[in-house]
Structures are given as structure tokens and as C-alpha cells.
Amino acid sequence: MSRTSHFIVAVLALCGFAPVGPVAAADPILKQAEAERPAFMETWQQLVDIDTGTGDKEGLAHVEGILVDRLKALGADVAVEPAAAGVAGNNIVATLKGSGDRNFLLMVHYDTVFGEGEAAARPFRVENDRAYGPGVADAKGGLATIVHALAILKALDFDGYGTLTVLFNPDEEKGSTGSRDKIAELAKQQDYVFSYEPPDSDAVTVATNGINYVFLDVKGRSSHAGSAPEEGRNAIIELAHQLLQLNDLGDADKGTTVNWTIVHGGAKRNIIPEVASAEGDMRYSDIGEYDRVLNEAQGIVEDHLIPDTTVEFRIQQGRPPLPKNPASMALAERAQDIYRQTGHDLDAIAMRFGTDAGYAYVPDSETPAVLETMGIVGGGLHSPDEFADATSVVPRLYLSARMIMDLSRSNEGVARP
Ligand SMILES: [Zn+2]
Questions:
Q1: Active site residue 127
Q2: Residue 44 to residue 124: CA distance in whole angstroms
Q3: What average pLDDT does this structure show over 177-206?
Q4: Closest by alpha carbon to 301, among 247, 233, 264?
Q5: Cα of 165 from ligand 1 centre, angstroms
């Protein structure tokens, strides 16, 4: 829970509202979310205690079996399809058909960054309202949130949605190469997409960064550094010149960063190097920044320090961004109204990470409306100190269930085209 939300709770209490108790009593959905908590904790423990590092076929299959059983028990049709591109594990796609006309996709990954033996070494535990264990927040808390939000809807006999589709993918931590096409294909059929990565405070995310990889290749001419250095064209010196020229490709106002992080060059101490290269990391949220950086850099590299060298700059595209957009903002506002019912404030944030929400977003289209970090609040991701805030379980379950119910019923909010 963030400091802000403590403050808000305190203010509400002073104003005479005791936020959680009476609201809970009055709100059957919140009551059901509270009733669901013990079952959530059991599922959470079960999922965290099985290693599912990306590529760990056995562990991924074990958790797949658990998730498929859960989804079937909730009444869903479940299809299991091998991830593309030879990636280990399956994409799990579950569908529930309802009586309404709004379509939802709830998605998150079931792989983690942790290797075999990690779960045995530090199994799931809760201490002072913090849960620990490999992937406890990223994203096993998200898996459990989806499963138990559906359980809440079932317990309340709610089927007012058109379709509710669930996608669990096995490869997010290595770039989702085996699931990105599936995400994009499913997302196009939806009105709303919720992604369940963990926020680091009481927040939902309306924009995520895209990731690109930048490359610089310099070709010069080799010669003996002792007997004929003047005949060589030193690729390393030219690379150094280019890196200094290309050190400013970012744009702080647009949130674009370009950082050179790897250099290669040279073979022997007595040879003028023929080739040198560099690689770097680009983050951006404005889709136009790919072309801007490419054009700018290609212009800059025409200026050489060492004559007779060739220089090539290129960009390889990684995860696309979820850019700031009105549909995500409208969803976040609705989420904020709902979350307030739990006595907590909710921030709408842009984050610097890239996530699968980028694959779900369709440029120049009002649908689907995409919202990220619907999972359990947590921190220390990808480290042994990873934790999740166990007090966020009920508010987060409530948020998901109530969002689906409210959006299914309403014809305003995010309009269909
Ligand atoms: Zn994640």
C-alpha cells in the first residue's frame, strides 16, 4: 500500500467514513472478494511453490495442469496450444460465454525469471502482510487474481459479459516470442483487455514503454600496427567517434531513452582493427519515435572521423509500447472510482517497463481498451527479495470482478466504434 492511500484512509476516517467495514457490508461484491481470500491464498501458494522458469518444460507443464483444471471447474472451454517459435510451454486459452455483448480478455504469464530449485529453497511464505517466493508478484499473484476474480463472478451468478477470455502465456520473461501473435489475435476481438503484471503501489498502468535494440556496425581496414599503421582504417576509433555523436538520441520530453551498453572491436594488439560494433537499448512510448531515432541516427553517422570507413546504424524492434491513449485513461478512471470503495486510492501511472500490454494495443483503434498492472501489488521483481502486498489481495480481486460487472452492464464509458 502506498503512503498516499494511508493518507486517504486516514482522511476518510476523520470525515466520518469508516471505509472498509460498512462499505463491505453494503457491497456484495466486496463481501464476496473477502470470502474468496482464503482460497486465493491457497492457489497462490500452490503456484509459487512450483518452479516455472522460462524454458522449464516440466515446471510449466505442472502449473499448466493446475490452471487448466481451475479454468474448467469455473465452466470455461479451455484450449491448450504450443507456444510458437519452438518456445517451451503452452498458451492456455479459456473462454466463458455470457449473456451480454461486451468482450473481455484477462491475460498474464505463468513463467518466472527463476531457475530450478528456487521454489524449494524459498517456498511461499507470508510475514507481516508480505508474501514472498519466486514470482510471487510477477506474476503468480496475477494468475491467482484472474482465477479468483472469475470465481467471484461465478459465486455471484454473474454472466452479463459477452465473452470472457483468459490467456496464460509461458514465455513473457524472454520477450513473449511464442505468444505475442496469439495476444494480438485475441486482443483484436475484445472490447477490454486487462493485463495482470504487478504494480509497485496501488496503481493501474495506462502506458508502458516499448523496447527496441539499436546496433552500430563499423567497417574499416586492417593493417600491421607496427610496420604500416597508416594503411589501416581504425574501426574502433571510428566507433568511438560515432558513439559520442550518437549519445543524445533520446528525447526526455517524449520519454525516449537510447543507451549504448555493449561494444566489440579488435582482435590482436598489433593489428589496426577492421571491424567494431556496438549495441544498445531503446525505450519509447511514442510510436513515431522509431522513425525519428532511425532517421536522425542515419543522418548523424554520415559524418566520419576516419575516412574510408563504413558505418551502419539499425534498429531491431522488440515489444511495442502501450502508448498513452484515451481508452486506457477512461478505463483507469473507472478503476479509480471502483477502488475507492475499498477505502484505497488508486493511481493511474505510465511505467518504463515493456509488457505484453503492448502486443494487445491496436494503434489507431478505440478498441480494445487496454489496462495494465491489474495484478497484486509488489516489489523487488526479478530478485530474491521479491515480495507481494498480501493486503492488496481483496481490493484487487474486487477491482477485477467489479470492472467486469460494471463494464458489462454499461453502454457508456469506452464507446464501441
Ligand atoms: Zn511479469
A1: no
A2: 8
A3: 97
A4: 247
A5: 19
Distance 218 CA to ligand 1 centre (A): 36
Q: What is the DSSP letter of 77?
A: E
Q: What are phi and psi of 65, to 5 degrees?
A: -60, -45
Q: Are 253 and 263 part of one and the same domain?
A: yes
On whether residue 415 sits in a domain, the answer given is no
- State which residues form the domain around 28: 3-208+321-409
DSSP-derived 3-state class of residue 159: coil
Digit-coded pLDDT (tens) for 335-392: 999 999 999 999 999 998 899 999 999 998 989 999 999 999 999 999 999 999 999 9
Q: Are residues 279 and 388 in the same domain?
A: no
Reported as half-sphere exposure (CB side, CA atoms, 13 A), residue 92 has a value of 28
Number of domain units in the chain = 2
The secondary element (H helix, E strand) that includes residue 389 is strand 387-389
* Residue of 189, 153, 33, 93 whose CA lies nearest to 408: 153
Instruction: Report the CATH number at residue 245.
Output: 3.30.70.360
Q: What is the pLDDT of residues 47-103, one digit of tens each?
A: 999 999 999 999 999 999 999 999 999 999 999 999 998 899 999 999 999 999 999
45 alpha carbon to ligand 1 midpoint, in Å?
17
pLDDT at 312: 98
Whether 272 and 359 map to the same domain: the answer is no
Query: Which residues are CB-neighbours of 132 under 8 A, at least 6 positions away?
Result: 122, 124, 125, 126, 386, 387, 388
pTM across the whole model: 0.85
What rounded mean pLDDT belongs to the chain? 92
Q: Is residue 415 scored above 90 in pLDDT? A: no
Is 140 found in the same domain as 96?
Answer: yes
Continuous segment of H or E residues that includes residue 3? helix 3-14
Q: How far is the CA of 195 from the centre of ligand 1 (A)?
A: 10
Report residue 125 as a C-alpha cell.
Answer: 511464505
Concerning whether 172 is annotated as a catalytic residue, the answer is: yes
Q: What is the pLDDT of residue 85?
A: 86
Residue 190 belongs to a domain: yes
C-alpha distances in angstroms, 129 versus 65, 396, 404? 29, 15, 27
Domain match, 193 and 242 both: no
If one counts every other C-beta atom within 10 angstroms of the C-beta of residue 75, the result is: 12
Rounded-to-integer distance, Cα 398 and Cα 409, Å = 16
Q: Is residue 72 part of a domain?
A: yes
Q: Which residue shows C-alpha cell 498480501? A: 390
Do residues 109 and 257 both lie within one domain?
A: no
Last residue of a domain, one of 317, 340, 362: 317
Mark whether 137 and 90 lie in a shared domain. yes
